[in-house]
Amino acid sequence: MKKNYLLLLPFTITLLQAQNSQLYYSGKFLTVKNKEQNFLKVYNKNSGIYELTDEKGFAIIAAQPSDTLVWNQGKSTHVIFAYELRELKTILESQTEKKSVGNIYSKDYDSLVSKEARDDFSIEKTKTHLSKKSHSYFVQIRKLRQRNDSIYTLKRLNNRTLLFNGSFTTSFDIKSRNAVPATQSRYVQGRSESGSLVWKGPETNEMFSFGPDISTLGFNGLAYEYDQNGRLIPWIDGLQHAKRYDNSLFKTTVGYNNQLNVNAFIKEEYNEKIRLSLNLGQQKNQMYFIDQFDVANTFKAKLNTEMGGYSINLAFNYEEDKATNTNRIGLFNRAYQNSLLTPISFSNEQNTFLNNGLQRSYSKYADNPSFLFEQDSKYRYQKLERQFSLNAMKNWDDFKLSISQSYDTNNIRNLDQYKPSAYGFSNGILNERTQNSSSYYSNILGSYTLGNYDFKNTFTLNFILNDKKSDVYNSLTSHQDLYQRTSQDHIFNYNMEIHDYDFEAGFNFGNSFYISNTSLKNNFWLPKANFYLKFSDIFNWNNYSFKLLGSYTQLSSEPEITRSYASYATTLLNAENYNQYFPVLEAESFRGLSNINTKEWKVGGRLNIGYYISLEGEYFNRKNTDDIFPVFENNLLKLKNAADHTYSGYEFNFAYDRLRLGYDMYTTHKVSFFKYKDIVDRIAPGYQNLAVSGFKDIYKTLTEGQALGSVIGSYFERNAAGQLIIDEFGYPKKAEGMKMIADPTPDFVMKFNHSLVYKNLSLDINWEWKKGGQLWNGTQAVLDYYGRSYDSGEERNTKNYVFQGVHSNGSVNQIPVDFYDPNRNVLENRWSRYGYLGVAESYIQKADYIRINNISLSSTFPVNYGKQNLKLTFYVNNIMLWQANKGADPNQNFYDMDNGRGLDFFNLPSFKTFGCIVSLKF
Predict the structure, then answer these.
(1) Edge to edge, what strands does the sheet with 232-234 contain?
(2) pTM for the whole structure
(3) Where are the domains of the chain?
(4) Which terminus of the chain faces fewer neighbouring Cβ atoms within 10 Å, N or C?
(5) In which element (H, E) is residue 24 found?
């Protein structure tokens, strides 16, 4: 039996040697915030084993050279070198404190060999004690407080520091207008008479520029109220040649913006106890029109502090905005229209008024832009806004409570005026519109969290109260409109998050109530749900991850009661009567309407390829039910639940971040692709083909089955084969009525962002390409009608032109026409025969464009050893714009209306901006 035990000895030795051959790595593993944490999971990717840290973040894990350790769910990694590995025994010994053997002291032995020394005044004999709540670091003790007869407390006196910092930013910009439609510069005011082209002066009230070539005319030099050089007559030797006057309204302007931000805060050691922030700003925005600008002054104050365990934020905002004029009555469009239509033989700048005190213009049916801008007061628009807000938040471990309150007031004053002799308002017109509104907002949010980072559940309950009031007064009608709405949102939400080594997931479920005193029916079922799944380190490739996400949301909303729908008055006028546009009617009421109910769902994903490349995409579908639009009924402006429509599309984004090109040089590129459509699903009875914006004879509409905002207008008559029908005079025949002629929806929009960084220099370029979509160019139509367009100037001498098409009997057209025959009435020429707007179909143009939105070059210069810095930025906006249409920027809106894109009726041109920003941080 003893021999058998002896045989086991070699095996035991071999086993112990095998155990000793296993090596281990030891060290501290910290969280992503560099904090020590108990039970932090450390994973060896090569062997598949893992260990958990102790409360100090220390862990021991078996490993081999070149193994990779991963913790913090893959956010932190470490590759092990051979010299970092040790045997387990060595590691454990190193963790045990070693002490040398000292002499053993025994009080009993000492009492026998020595005599006790008595000290009645020693600290052991004292009758007073030190409280356990005393501060432990005696070098930082600044206060001694006696709690009772026998106990003292040592308190730390915190080191409080008052600090200041802030920034000052100043900028200026130079603006100039972008593309405008081309006009002819050869033919003067006038028309044909008895086969000859005749100049007709302003006193004749002639509107057409189908007169003779200006090179054939000269000034007679006699006194003439409409031109300081005299009247125009056929030129002969000795006369002064007629001048081509430039009536452009635009000029290069300079604006500025100054912002001062100052922060004062008190710190106790490393904790910020209170902070006061002040912001002062002033901005002057100079328009490209003559003497038209606005000035904005702002003051903002914010106080952050902690009180009774609450984090408290107080804020006050004050903003004052003043402008010489606004475009509320279409003033800028009207001035721009008259500047383009002014014949080259008339100068708007020479004088604004005639001797009789009326405006001096080229016709009583037109206006002098300088006269339109003539005003008594410096500012016809003033806005004053004040806002007070309070936010308090407190945490009780897993429970958080946040309370937000705000109150703001808004006072707006518009003085809209046309003086006597203005076209359409011969006696003048004046309206003072004032709007006073106030809003109270309250938000109470409570949340409770269960679990930890690996598996966390959060329950939230949110209560939102909005109380808004608005009153609008128009002096022209002596009528005041009063609006008030109190709405409540009750939102319950549950959120769950799961975090594992290479897997993350989040799920969110909730429901909300929407209650309002202006709504026809409250909504108590507004569910929402969303989720995401993220897989990290796919195929064990570092930072290769995929994220899948989706959401479903139901919302109820109502139109904002502070919004004015007065501009909808354009739909009551034909385009030719634009001069009568002067909006004063406001929405009758915001009550008795169904909510705008929205159901939206999205699904998408994101793929990260390495550390630099990412690709993401999303498909969305938003169904809007009972959407609200303005209508006129019985001469009253009302809001109606007129249509259901679905807005859907998809978006893709690609990014290549920090592509290194060389030492201290890298670049970033981002590309997005966006495609959408908004289709009308249902029209409420009585509102088919309702005008959304535009004029009575050309407008954007609601038509079932068509894109929302499709354009309806006049068109040419065609046969079943699509051939033009030619009338007996040899011109295409205008059809009766109106039909759908354009869809402003683009095929797609692509945006590009490029950034190049070299040391402290940064160059950024942002540009976009919009492909597809159509617009109606009414500006071109009116310029054609009056003979002011470039095409009418170049082609008016075209003769014997045959339009392709057929007659009503089916025969091919062979009738030659002269575009402008002096022997015929001016209203029978190529451009004037169809009326003021011509045939709308012929003025449908592509809305494609390519624009460079922004180029900026910036650099940061450290000051005072980096404690402060100076940043300098040069930028240009809209520096390049290529557009397919002949007119203004396709992104400009009809009369500056939000839903006016796709209609161009003397839309204001966009502007290019050159600017510089200097920012100093101190």
Answers:
(1) 232-234, 217-219, 240-241
(2) 0.82
(3) 2-95, 186-241
(4) N
(5) strand 23-28
